[in-house]
Design a protein that fits this description.
Chain lengths: ~270, ~300, ~425
């Protein structure tokens, strides 16, 4: 009886897994076949790379890749610097007004940058960052989520290590850099993974503040390339889609264990 | 001595503010100031060639409430939230329980569940577009094997919103699973052993012990899912553009459309303020009520 | 190719005489694409040719999605101080662009003389002429045409050389063509539903709006009847699928034989021609009270906030891109219309239309064409109409109800402009 129910569960888990992965598998398969074969489910049809050639020629993908890469790097560096400093202040420095400021920071978890698109667009234009990668990244740098994570990580560092470093003559900054940052490595890693995958995939805000192929990230480029107005060609769009998700997907499949472990270890509840 | 302590305290305060200042400046520039500016904009009229903008008080709000589309969009978003939150959480929980138990091909199963999370919503929408396209799409092809008629999933008001909802669930369930997996791994093994000794069935063990222990995680996920139900709209741009007849239009999409397609920034601002108010209420509930029970310090 | 280059150079010289060129003028031009095919390459090719002939002008041509996206992109650029001197935008955005005070009439640009402005088809100038001035120059312009699958006509025992001429023909032939897995007809109802609907309303003898962009006639009985007819194609006659028909995937559906006839922009013609594995025909739309189609597509606009040099350079570019030779090449590459009668007199287009007569259908239809639907506050008025059409087609509301609501909303939106 027990064995039977276990089999049913294993079967259920497997079916769900197949259902979950099927859109991706179908697109993968369609990307390598002619449109006609793809929409007619011609399973024995010949494989072809033509869709990738057509898709590749249809848009400046290399530029889009570069833009996305620059974007996630800029955001990540900004976030690391800003959240480290702020997280340390909240975790280890005593000053008046700290609690109120912390609540204000937590408020930002709910004031989504996505909701403030209109005014943020005006702001980015005002400070001359419209249609720049920095302009796309800036509103996300002071991430409340990141500040909160860093604060938690720094809080768990034993005060003895802090004192020991101070005795050896380290200043505040030295202590932060030599004691806290190395100890918080798993948190940084987890945060980096979350941040990179978030911003690699972000769409609405980049759509609004980028205006040219020189700044457009992959997601925006893909949406323009695949807009239904273009007369969707299933196989070519699948090829373009596979191309643009490939780097992140491959990275995820290769470093899957680290990916999941990073989440778990960082103790994001 | 007292003097020394005082000095130290002042020094700390200066350090604190210096360390905080980059974050404070950015948060002010891109969160707090824009919120206030949005509020102000929502009280002004839209300028045209004939009439410059002027202060109109609550008129944008009353116009908004008189706009039938607004209510359609609100209703859609409530359905969207009401469906995606419980369904994606239930699926995430099932996934986590399975991915944490001893089943064959566990690695594959776990990967399959999580993979949609790393895809951009735009890419996900492209993948699903070919499931939904009438006649050519995968769903219709499968349906036709069983002699079912072709269904225009994205083109009918009854199904368009649900088609959108399914993509969202597909995208976020695997993400929520991770949080459950993390929580499951903190449940001590001996609880399971004790339950086995007591002769409790797996179902009883799950229901009586695991689920209550997962409660804080669930609350955390609910808040996240709630936020997602406001912000996950990217796929609308590919799949339906809010149609047909606004049947799948969600609030954030309508804000975008109002501001950037109709160039009616004051109306968009009024809607933004309403969304912020709702999010504020959620935040208040979370910080005052839930955090007492979940303790994340 | 060499002929084209020579003509291009000649054209450039002609405009240079009218206005001495400035050294190194940089132009940024946003443009949309709304039909299938790798049209960005075509545009880039034309621009490269222009730059070769005019080394003192540099053109950044930025493809920015569909018509709505492009308007957003161009206006965002202007609002945030990014350069933008000209753009190809919806011909029907004229009222709103004028209202927002960001475009300028061509009459105020030196060198845009009346003879040149009159060299285009008048029907294509209709949307761009407002308050007695010319704000838009036709570029990627279309009408709606009926594509039909001749093989399916033969299978159904119909004459493949006589496509439906009237609404009654459309229904009877549609019924003959409807089979398991094949619809008789598909008229797209996402993307640009108002456009298709306008064709039906015109054919039923009523236009949707007044010429000053201030009044709409959505609740006119003839207009309601047109929508009832559209709906009846699926409910009563069963020749079109229920629900909405997707604009973007329709070409694919036609190519896969899922429908025997489709109504679509002529801008799709070359893409259909290149991909069709069967014998297909192109016809003018059928008539009820009268024949007719709205024009459609994009016009060139020049922005107000530009220097004299930039305006001259922009004008030069526009003249180049709409010159008969370029218009002919563009028409061959896409299926869009040659925008002037002279384009159809070029050797290239003459040869092409002889070999492929469907390329003339859209042009021939121009004599029955009317301006595309456009009013003040056009995006929202149009959205209201789109929703009404979709509500009626999906059976959420009756055509009369839906159109009455759209009319009410339009009246409310246009009140401020009266």
């Amino acid at each position: 009886m027990k064995a039977l129910s276990q089999h049913i569960e294993a079967f259920g888990a497997m079916v769900l897994a197949l259902v979950w992965i099927s859109p991706l598998l179908f697109a993968f398969w369609a990307a390598f076949h002619t449109t006609s074969d793809a929409v007619n489910f011609n399973l024995s049809a010949a494989w072809t790379l033509d869709n990738f050639r057509t898709a590749w020629a249809g848009a400046p993908w290399l530029r889009y890749f570069l833009n996305t890469f620059l974007l996630v790097s800029v955001v990540l560096i900004g976030q690391f610097v800003i959240t480290t400093l702020a997280g340390f202040a909240f975790a280890k420095v005593a000053f008046t007004g700290k609690d109120i400021v912390f609540i204000l920071v937590l408020m930002q978890l709910f004031i989504l940058p996505e909701v403030l698109i209109v005014e943020n667009y005006a702001m980015v234009s005002r400070i001359g960052l419209f249609d720049t990668i920095l302009g796309v990244g800036m509103p996300y740098m002071a991430s409340a989520f990141g500040i909160f994570l860093m604060r938690q990580a720094f809080k768990s560092v034993p005060i003895e290590l802090h004192e020991a470093a101070r005795v050896e003559g380290c200043g505040w900054f030295g202590i932060l850099l030599r004691v806290y940052v190395p100890l918080a490595r798993p948190t940084y890693l987890a945060y980096a993974l979350v941040s990179v995958s978030t911003h690699w995939n972000n769409f609405l805000w980049p759509l609004i503040v980028t205006n040219s192929p020189d700044t457009r990230p992959l997601t925006v480029g893909l949406s323009i390339f695949g807009a239904p107005e273009n007369g969707v060609d299933i196989s070519v769009i699948s090829a373009a889609t596979m191309m643009s998700v490939a780097p992140l997907l491959v990275a995820f499949l290769v470093f899957q264990r680290q990916f999941v472990q990073a989440f778990l270890r960082a103790g994001i509840k | 001595m007292a003097h020394h302590v005082n000095l130290e305290r002042r020094r700390q305060a200066i350090y604190g503010w210096i360390l905080l200042s980059p974050a404070a400046i950015l948060l002010t520039t891109f969160a707090f100031y824009p919120s206030l500016a949005t509020f102000w904009a929502s009280l002004m009229s839209r300028g045209t060639r004939r009439k410059p903008p002027e202060f109109v008080g609550g008129r944008n709000y009353s116009d908004l409430f008189a706009d039938p589309t607004f209510w359609v969009v609100v209703k859609n978003n409530l359905i969207y939230a009401g469906a995606t939150i419980p369904i994606s959480i239930s699926i995430a929980l099932a996934m986590a329980l399975w991915a944490n138990s001893k089943i064959p091909a566990r690695g594959f199963v776990r990967t399959a569940y999580f993979t949609p999370t790393v895809l951009p919503m735009i890419a996900a929408a492209n993948l699903w577009l070919f499931f939904y396209t009438p006649g050519l799409g995968v769903l219709d092809q499968i349906g036709s094997l069983f002699g079912l008629p072709s269904v225009n999933w994205l083109g009918q008001p009854e199904t368009a919103l649900w088609a959108i909802i399914i993509v969202t669930i597909w995208k976020e369930a695997g993400f929520f699973m991770i949080f459950y997996l993390a929580a499951l791994q903190t449940i001590p093994e001996d609880l399971k052993e004790a339950a086995d000794i007591e002769g409790a069935s797996r179902w009883t063990y799950t229901r009586r012990i695991v689920l209550p222990l997962l409660m804080p995680t669930t609350l955390f996920i609910v808040v996240n899912a709630l936020i997602n139900s406001v912000k996950l709209i990217d796929h609308l741009f590919i799949l339906t553009k809010g149609g047909p007849n606004d049947a799948s239009k969600l609030i954030l999409y309508y804000i975008w459309e109002m501001a950037f397609a109709f160039f009616d920034a004051p109306q968009a601002a009024a809607m933004t303020i309403l969304v912020l108010a709702v999010l504020g209420i959620v935040a208040a509930i979370k910080f005052t009520y839930l955090d007492k029970r979940t303790h994340y310090q | 190719m060499t002929l084209m280059k020579r003509l291009a150079a000649g054209c450039a010289v002609a405009t240079m005489l009218a206005a001495p060129a400035a050294a190194e003028t940089e132009l940024t031009m946003y443009y949309p694409i709304a039909v299938g095919g790798a049209l960005t390459e075509v545009v880039n090719g034309i621009v490269a040719e222009f730059e070769a002939a005019n080394p003192d002008i540099k053109v950044n041509a930025i493809y920015s999605g569909n018509y709505d996206d492009t308007r957003v992109r161009a206006l965002s650029a202007l609002a945030s101080g990014e350069p933008a001197q000209l753009a190809v935008m919806f011909s029907i955005d004229a009222y709103d662009l004028i209202e927002q005070d960001i475009v300028m009439p061509f009459e105020e640009i030196e060198g845009a003389d009346a003879a040149w402005l009159d060299s285009f088809y008048p029907a294509l100038m209709a949307n761009g002429r407002v308050e007695g001035k010319t704000w838009g120059i036709p570029f990627q312009r279309s009408t709606i045409v009926a594509y039909y699958n001749k093989d399916k006509f033969r299978e159904a025992g119909l004459d493949p050389e006589s496509p439906p001429k009237t609404w009654d023909d459309l229904v009877t032939m549609g019924k003959a063509l409807t089979k398991d897995g094949t619809s008789g007809l598909m008229i797209p109802s996402t993307g640009y539903p108002y456009w298709m609907f306008q064709a039906l309303a015109i054919q039923n003898g009523k236009e949707l709006m007044s010429n000053d962009g201030l009044t709409t006639y959505f609740d006119d009985p003839a207009v309601i009847e047109a929508l009832e007819f559209w709906r009846s194609l699926s409910t009563e006659h069963g020749i079109m699928p229920e629900g909405t028909v997707e604009w973007g995937t329709l070409r694919q559906a036609f190519l896969e034989g899922q429908t025997a006839m489709m109504w679509h922009s002529t801008g799709n013609l070359t893409a259909v021609k290149n991909a069709a594995s069967f014998d297909f025909g192109v016809a003018e739309l059928p008539a009820n009270v009268r024949p007719g189609s709205p024009t459609g597509g994009g016009n060139f606009y020049v922005f107000k906030d530009t220097t004299d040099e930039e305006r001259q350079a922009a004008l030069k570019l526009i003249k180049f891109m709409t010159s008969p030779e370029q218009a002919a090449a563009w028409s061959i590459a896409t299926g869009y219309m040659g925008v002037s009668p002279a384009a159809y007199e070029t050797e290239a287009l003459k040869a092409y239309t002889t070999e492929f007569p469907p390329a003339l259908v859209a042009r021939n239809q121009l004599e029955n064409a009317v301006a595309e639907f456009s009013t003040f506050e056009t995006a929202r008025v149009r959205e209201g109409l789109n929703n009404a059409i979709q509500a009626a087609l999906t059976g959420t509301k009756t055509p009369a109800e839906a159109l009455a609501e759209a009319q009410e909303a339009a009246v409310r939106l246009l009140r401020d402009y009266q």
